[in-house]
Write a structure and sequence with these properties.
alpha+beta, PH-domain like, 6 strands, elongated
Length: 178
Protein backbone atom coordinates (compact mmCIF):
# COMPACT_ATOMS: atom_id res chain seq x y z
CA UNK A 1 0.00 0.00 0.00
CA UNK A 2 1.48 3.33 -1.03
CA UNK A 3 0.71 6.74 0.35
CA UNK A 4 0.77 8.10 3.87
CA UNK A 5 -1.85 7.85 6.58
CA UNK A 6 -3.47 11.14 5.66
CA UNK A 7 -3.80 10.69 1.92
CA UNK A 8 -4.11 6.90 1.66
CA UNK A 9 -3.29 4.76 -1.36
CA UNK A 10 -5.22 6.74 -4.01
CA UNK A 11 -4.49 10.30 -2.92
CA UNK A 12 -7.77 10.33 -0.97
CA UNK A 13 -7.68 12.92 1.81
CA UNK A 14 -10.55 12.54 4.31
CA UNK A 15 -9.58 15.72 6.16
CA UNK A 16 -11.06 17.62 3.19
CA UNK A 17 -14.50 16.07 3.81
CA UNK A 18 -16.48 18.56 5.83
CA UNK A 19 -19.95 18.25 4.31
CA UNK A 20 -21.86 15.47 2.57
CA UNK A 21 -22.00 15.41 -1.22
CA UNK A 22 -24.94 17.23 -2.84
CA UNK A 23 -26.21 13.87 -4.12
CA UNK A 24 -27.23 13.05 -0.52
CA UNK A 25 -30.03 15.62 -0.75
CA UNK A 26 -31.24 13.89 -3.92
CA UNK A 27 -31.19 10.61 -2.02
CA UNK A 28 -33.17 12.18 0.84
CA UNK A 29 -35.76 13.50 -1.66
CA UNK A 30 -36.20 10.00 -3.11
CA UNK A 31 -36.62 8.54 0.38
CA UNK A 32 -39.25 11.17 1.18
CA UNK A 33 -41.07 10.59 -2.13
CA UNK A 34 -41.42 6.90 -1.33
CA UNK A 35 -43.48 7.81 1.74
CA UNK A 36 -46.05 9.51 -0.57
CA UNK A 37 -48.50 11.03 1.95
CA UNK A 38 -45.80 11.49 4.58
CA UNK A 39 -43.57 13.49 2.22
CA UNK A 40 -43.66 16.83 4.08
CA UNK A 41 -43.12 15.15 7.44
CA UNK A 42 -40.11 13.22 6.14
CA UNK A 43 -38.49 15.76 3.83
CA UNK A 44 -38.30 18.64 6.34
CA UNK A 45 -36.19 16.77 8.95
CA UNK A 46 -34.01 15.28 6.20
CA UNK A 47 -33.52 18.72 4.63
CA UNK A 48 -32.49 20.13 8.03
CA UNK A 49 -30.11 17.23 8.62
CA UNK A 50 -28.49 17.64 5.20
CA UNK A 51 -27.91 21.38 5.62
CA UNK A 52 -26.46 21.08 9.14
CA UNK A 53 -24.47 17.85 8.71
CA UNK A 54 -20.71 18.34 9.26
CA UNK A 55 -17.80 15.90 9.42
CA UNK A 56 -14.27 16.35 10.73
CA UNK A 57 -11.44 13.83 10.47
CA UNK A 58 -8.30 14.48 12.50
CA UNK A 59 -5.32 12.51 13.82
CA UNK A 60 -7.21 11.20 16.87
CA UNK A 61 -10.69 10.47 15.53
CA UNK A 62 -13.74 11.47 13.56
CA UNK A 63 -16.56 13.81 14.56
CA UNK A 64 -20.02 14.31 13.14
CA UNK A 65 -22.58 16.96 14.04
CA UNK A 66 -26.04 17.92 12.81
CA UNK A 67 -29.28 19.48 13.95
CA UNK A 68 -31.11 22.76 13.91
CA UNK A 69 -33.24 22.80 17.05
CA UNK A 70 -31.63 19.82 18.73
CA UNK A 71 -27.91 19.77 17.96
CA UNK A 72 -26.26 16.37 18.08
CA UNK A 73 -22.51 15.83 18.08
CA UNK A 74 -20.58 12.57 18.10
CA UNK A 75 -16.81 12.21 18.42
CA UNK A 76 -15.21 8.79 18.10
CA UNK A 77 -11.52 8.19 18.56
CA UNK A 78 -9.99 5.64 16.22
CA UNK A 79 -9.02 3.60 19.29
CA UNK A 80 -12.71 3.01 20.17
CA UNK A 81 -13.74 1.77 16.70
CA UNK A 82 -14.52 -1.95 16.70
CA UNK A 83 -16.06 -2.52 13.27
CA UNK A 84 -16.86 -0.65 10.07
CA UNK A 85 -19.67 -1.54 7.62
CA UNK A 86 -20.38 -0.09 4.19
CA UNK A 87 -23.99 -0.02 2.97
CA UNK A 88 -24.99 0.84 -0.58
CA UNK A 89 -28.63 0.35 -1.54
CA UNK A 90 -30.03 0.80 -5.05
CA UNK A 91 -30.39 4.58 -4.76
CA UNK A 92 -26.93 4.91 -3.19
CA UNK A 93 -25.35 3.04 -6.09
CA UNK A 94 -27.33 5.06 -8.65
CA UNK A 95 -26.11 8.32 -7.08
CA UNK A 96 -22.56 7.04 -6.42
CA UNK A 97 -22.99 7.29 -2.65
CA UNK A 98 -22.68 4.99 0.32
CA UNK A 99 -23.11 4.91 4.07
CA UNK A 100 -20.36 3.88 6.47
CA UNK A 101 -21.57 2.56 9.83
CA UNK A 102 -19.01 2.70 12.62
CA UNK A 103 -19.52 0.44 15.63
CA UNK A 104 -17.85 0.66 19.01
CA UNK A 105 -17.93 -1.53 22.11
CA UNK A 106 -20.55 0.74 23.68
CA UNK A 107 -23.02 -2.06 24.37
CA UNK A 108 -25.58 -0.99 21.77
CA UNK A 109 -26.38 -3.27 18.87
CA UNK A 110 -26.53 -0.46 16.30
CA UNK A 111 -23.88 1.76 14.85
CA UNK A 112 -22.52 4.57 16.99
CA UNK A 113 -22.05 6.77 13.91
CA UNK A 114 -23.16 6.55 10.27
CA UNK A 115 -21.29 8.67 7.76
CA UNK A 116 -23.55 9.44 4.79
CA UNK A 117 -23.10 11.30 1.53
CA UNK A 118 -19.52 10.32 0.69
CA UNK A 119 -18.64 9.53 -2.93
CA UNK A 120 -15.39 7.62 -2.26
CA UNK A 121 -16.89 5.32 0.34
CA UNK A 122 -14.37 2.47 -0.13
CA UNK A 123 -11.41 4.84 0.20
CA UNK A 124 -12.89 6.30 3.40
CA UNK A 125 -13.51 2.81 4.80
CA UNK A 126 -9.88 1.83 4.05
CA UNK A 127 -8.66 5.04 5.70
CA UNK A 128 -10.72 4.35 8.82
CA UNK A 129 -9.43 0.76 9.00
CA UNK A 130 -5.85 2.01 8.68
CA UNK A 131 -6.37 4.59 11.41
CA UNK A 132 -8.18 2.08 13.62
CA UNK A 133 -5.36 -0.47 13.36
CA UNK A 134 -2.70 2.22 13.83
CA UNK A 135 -4.40 3.56 16.96
CA UNK A 136 -4.55 0.11 18.54
CA UNK A 137 -0.90 -0.62 17.73
CA UNK A 138 0.46 2.63 19.15
CA UNK A 139 -0.67 2.40 22.77
CA UNK A 140 1.95 4.27 24.79
CA UNK A 141 2.06 6.59 27.74
CA UNK A 142 3.17 10.17 27.19
CA UNK A 143 6.87 10.57 26.63
CA UNK A 144 7.43 7.10 25.19
CA UNK A 145 8.12 6.48 21.53
CA UNK A 146 5.52 4.64 19.49
CA UNK A 147 6.25 1.17 18.12
CA UNK A 148 5.31 -0.37 14.82
CA UNK A 149 3.28 -3.59 14.79
CA UNK A 150 6.36 -5.79 14.27
CA UNK A 151 8.35 -4.02 17.01
CA UNK A 152 5.36 -4.34 19.35
CA UNK A 153 5.11 -8.09 18.69
CA UNK A 154 8.86 -8.54 19.25
CA UNK A 155 8.77 -6.61 22.52
CA UNK A 156 5.73 -8.58 23.74
CA UNK A 157 7.42 -11.91 22.95
CA UNK A 158 10.60 -10.76 24.72
CA UNK A 159 8.62 -9.67 27.79
CA UNK A 160 6.67 -12.94 27.93
CA UNK A 161 9.90 -14.95 27.59
CA UNK A 162 11.43 -12.96 30.44
CA UNK A 163 8.37 -13.60 32.64
CA UNK A 164 8.47 -17.33 31.83
CA UNK A 165 12.15 -17.57 32.73
CA UNK A 166 11.61 -15.69 36.00
CA UNK A 167 8.71 -18.00 36.94
CA UNK A 168 10.92 -21.04 36.29
CA UNK A 169 13.63 -19.59 38.53
CA UNK A 170 11.13 -18.90 41.32
CA UNK A 171 9.65 -22.40 41.03
CA UNK A 172 13.16 -23.92 41.05
CA UNK A 173 14.03 -22.07 44.29
CA UNK A 174 10.77 -23.23 45.92
CA UNK A 175 11.49 -26.86 44.99
CA UNK A 176 15.02 -26.73 46.46
CA UNK A 177 13.69 -25.31 49.76
CA UNK A 178 11.08 -28.05 50.08
Amino acid sequence: MTGDATHGPSGFNPTQIERPDAALMTYYLWVALITVAGFPFVVIPLWCKYHTLRYRFDDKGVSMSWGLLFRREIYLTYRRIQDIHVTRNLFHRWLGLGAISIQTASGTSGAEMTIEGVKKVEALRDYLYTQMRGAKGNTTTSGESTLTGEETNDSVVALLTEIRDELRRVRGRQETKA
